[in-house]
Please model this.
Amino acid sequence: IRASLEVAAAVACLGAVLIGATWIATGGRGVWRTLAGAGLLAFLVAGLSPGILLGSAAAHAWNHPALAMVSDTPLIVVLCHLARFGFLACLTGAALARAEGSLRDMRSLDAGDSLMGWLVAAAPPQVGAVAGMALAMGLLSLHEIETTIMVQPPSASGGGLAWKLLQALHFNREDDLIPAMVLLIGTGLVLATASVVLAGRGPKPDRGA
Model:
């Protein structure tokens, strides 16, 4: 359970970073906007692919002794979950960039186009929306079973929530399955509520864009 929560927390944090990166790139010009579009397309393809196929592809891609620091640790699970749900972060970042509208030019004049200027002037009003989507990605990571089973390192077998659920389901272990499902649903409801509350705290889009 702890391993699954750690993976979900890592996915949420990386999701917030991806939202910010997509927001900045989409609001930029030229090659940055092109990169944002290409990234969104790549994450959409990965996100809409079956979890089994994505996990299998990742397992083969990282199956090399030189990459053992990734393939033999929970890091590969984090990367797969980010690939699976990263399109949500990209869509959120693109939406926030569009919502900024004409305020983007004012922000550029006041704080500049640097990363620090964006952090000071643009990011604070949308912290709720970013945190809400990051929590949603963590929640989806916590519920992801197909991809996790395909890439979960042997050292984590028996410890992850996805593994426990699959084993209990296959072997009809109701004493293990029911508590795990109650925990999963309860945690999901709490995180989903927090995600909706945080996402609703952001300011309204600029209609003058």
User: Anything to note?
Assistant: The two ends are 46 Å apart (CA to CA). The CA atoms of residues 54 and 121 lie 38 Å apart. The longest helix spans residues 2-27. DSSP finds eleven helices and no strands in the chain.
